[in-house]
Design a protein that fits this description.
This protein has about 220 residues and is mostly helical. It is built from 10 helices and no strands. It is globular.
Amino acid sequence: MEHLVHGPPADAIRFFADKYINRQASFPGVMNARTWGYGLGIIGIAIVIALFLDSWVVQLIPSLRTSLLTTIFFFLGSAPSLAGFIVLVGMSFVFEKEKRQKIPYFILAVLVAIAISYGLKYLIVRPRPEILPLLVKSSPSFPSTHAAVAGAMYFFILGLNKVERNGLLLLALLVALSGLYNGVHYLSDVIAGVALGMIISYVSDRRIPVWIRKKRAASQQS
C-alpha cells in the first residue's frame, strides 16, 4: 500500500518518522533537545490549527455518524471501556519476563496521564461541546482524558510484536477519537490529550528505566 502514497508531503512525513520516531523506538533514551523542540513545536502548531477548526469539526461530526460507528464509539467512549483497554494493554506484558518489567512503568504512565489531564481540565475549565452529544459528561473538556491515556500507551505498545502493536495502536487511535465522535470533545482536546499522553509515555518507558538503571549501577560501584 506504501507505493500508493507519494509526493513531497508523504516523503516529508516518512522522513520525520524514520528520523525521529522509528529511530527512537530502536534506540531508547536518545531523544535529544532538538528533537524535543521539533516535537513540541509541531504539537503547538497542531493545537493552534485545531482551535480554529474546532467549531467546524464539531458541526461536521453528526453528519458522519452511522449506526455501526455510533455503536463502536459509544462503547469506546465509556469509562468501563477505557478501563478494559488499559487492562488489555497491560496483559500484553504479563506473559514474558522481559516485558513484565514494564508493568510498573505502564501503570505509572496511565495514572499520571489521568491525573494531569484531570488537573488541566479543572484549571482551564473549557465547556463541553453542545451540538448533539451522544454522552453526558460533567467534567470540563480540555484535554481529553481518553486521548491522554491512549497516548500514554504509545511507547509501551511499540515494544510489542507486530500483530499486537498494529492492533493495539489502531484501538488506541479509536479510543482517542471516541470523545470527538461522541460530541463531548473538540479536536484540540483530543490532539492535546494525545500529545500529553505521548510525552508521559516516553518519559515513563524510555527515560525513567534508564535513570533507575544508572542509579543502581552507581550505587553498586560506590
